[in-house]
Design brief:
By secondary structure, this protein is mostly helical. It has 5 helices and 2 strands, in the order E-E-H-H-H-H-H. The chain has a two-stranded antiparallel ribbon. Strand 1 and strand 2 form a beta hairpin.
């Protein structure tokens, strides 16, 4: 008869462990582990880092949304004219966003405090892009453009 024991992890979740392997079990399973002060400080710094990222992304989104609203690129007539290649306001707006992003990322890659984070993010992005094909990007972009054109939004 195969039996298994349950053990609580540090976050309170249950995990089922095989009964045959005694390396998984401590002698005092019922006692809860009290987090050390260093672990609490690490969790607090992770939360504050996450909040800082959320605030930064929110501010960048508000600025980009404000610029799009002032540029009037959300109006159906502008979108239709862009898709018909008669006015290029949307193209100008998005190319200026790409250009400003390139400048900011170039500066971030040169600053010593952020260069290692930039390199890690770049490696992760490139690994993600290698797993996808160019055809899937083309199909996705075409579907997005067709949907925007059909909806007029």
């Amino acid at each position: 008869m195969s039996s298994s024991r349950r053990q609580r992890t540090r976050r309170g979740a249950l995990r089922v462990l095989p009964a045959n392997d005694d390396n998984y079990f401590d002698s005092d399973d019922d006692k809860e582990e009290v987090p050390k002060k260093a672990e609490i400080n690490t969790n607090t710094s992770k939360v504050s880092s996450t909040i800082a990222k959320l605030v930064t992304c929110s501010v960048a989104g508000i600025i980009f949304g404000f610029a799009c609203e002032k540029g009037r690129v959300f109006e159906p007539s502008i979108i239709r004219d862009q898709m018909l290649f008669t006015k290029f306001l949307m193209l100008k707006m998005f190319l200026s966003a790409v250009t400003s992003s390139m400048v900011v990322f170039s500066l971030l890659s040169m600053l010593p405090p952020t260069s290692k984070y930039y390199a890690a993010a770049r490696r992760e992005f490139m690994a993600t892009m290698r797993s996808r094909s160019i055809l899937s990007s083309i199909i996705g972009g075409a579907m997005l453009g067709a949907g925007m054109t059909l909806c007029g939004a």
